Amino acid sequence: MTAFDEELVFNALYETFPDPVIILDAERIIRSANPAALTQFGYAADAFIGQPARLIYADDDEYLRRLRNRAARVDETIARTSTYSYIRRDGSTFSGHLRTTPLIDAAGRELALIGIIRDVSDLAKAVLERQRASDMLDAAFDVMPEGFAIFDAEERLLVYNRAYVTICGPAGPLLHPGMTAEEILLLAQKEGHYPEALPGNPDWPAWVAHRLQDFRQPDNRAKIYRYAGDRWLRVENIKTKDGNTVVLRVDVTELKRAELTLERQRQELEHKNEALDQFTATVSHDLKAPLRHISMFSEMIEDELAAGNQDEVSASARHLRDSARRMNRVIDSLLDYSQIAYQISTWSDVDLGDIVADTLGVLGGHAREANVAFEIGPLPKVQGDPELLRRLVQNLVGNAIKYRHPDRGPIVRVNGRAVGQQVELAVEDNGIGIDPRFATRIFEVFQRLHHDESTYGGTGIGLALAKRIAESHNGSIHLDTSFTEGARFVVTLPKRMRKTK
Fold first, then answer.
1. Which of 65, 146, 187, 252 could form a disulfide with 171 if both were Cys (CB 3.0 to 4.6 A apart)?
2. Cβ contacts of residue 150 below 8 Å, gap of 6+?
3. Beta strand pairing status for 83-87 and 157-160?
4. Within a 13 Å sphere around the CA of 240, how many CA atoms are in the beta-carbon half?
5. What confidence tier does 178 reach under pLDDT thresholds 50, 70, 90?
6. What is the pLDDT of residues 343-382, one digit of tens each?
7. Which GO terms describe its biological process (predicted)?
8. Chain mean pLDDT for the chain
């Protein structure tokens, strides 16, 4: 049997090894190179052997980096720390992963260094292309106008774009990976970022709980919420198969404003149609009645003059004059009513205290004549048309004076309060009161519950005007049917009005 020749086997492996193998001495001089190394670097053996190791590195910086790594005993099994740029004889370069094995003598001195270089140019190119693609994706991701973020299964923030930072409002500058969805939500809520969950609103915990529920168990339906700055956002939460949550936040303010404008126009058209119906009914009744009287008394005067009955002409003429005046009042009331739009176009800050003070000044003579006692409570500020609000208050206070009880001293109380984002103005009296059955009817045009104009004069349009003014401010008015000491009207107005674009 032939003895096993280790040197022969080593030489065979060395010569046929597919990757370049280079042996350096302690002075970093190339002492040996296998055929794969000579082919990779493009040298003949006599032009390669004996050269310094610097020959194979692309530039001084790469060679110095190699020396520093060597001195620091960097782990050369890790590709990213032991990949260098090498240069061939023809000047072309390639990326190579270097692995080295030192040859140590009995005294522990390094005699030589065996280096194996694997060409990883294709891999490096693929990594570079991947990085470029990743950079492009990151750039596109960051300029997206929609807010985008991903949370892990523990609700911790993983990634997010610039739009998401903006959308998070006060929480935006403090965002960082690892922050929980609940922390972000509560921070923004605390700083007043959500108008529907302001810190002073007792219902804000329920609102926050609803938002967190939608985040944790989304129903795959987009929700629209109002944000600070009168903005509207579409919110979508999407659960992935691995338990992560993808969130999308899209600014739909312009779309929402257009939707609200259409809704206001629809409501205004509906109101106008109702007003037209009421107007038609009014023309057929309230205008025709005085016209019939005018026609009747005119004929009576004509007959009496023809009969030479002068004594009755004066009475008929007086009735004719009263009917004409009644008709004139009705026409004036209709003009007042028709000139109030359902959406005011100009508004300003209005102190309801000033409005009430002006009203008492205007109605002062009538109030003193009726010996009315006024009790004025605190009154908040609102935004609206001061002239229209003045007419509203005058109508309510004027009615309270007019419909006083004959058996007790009249008292009129006016007070207000803020309720969340709204303001309530209440005008109450201790007068004859209103049957709750007519709580809706009294706000219709020319609806009068008392037909004795000698005691309770007017055309019956005052409360209809008050209702229209309240609605023009996006508010409402109603009769408090639980109040039994007289009549109590409550006007609800938004504290702040939004301009219509």
1. 187
2. 157, 158, 159, 160, 244, 245, 246, 247
3. unpaired
4. 12
5. very high
6. 566 678 899 999 999 888 888 888 888 899 999 999 999 9
7. osmosensory signaling via phosphorelay pathway; regulation of DNA-templated transcription
8. 83
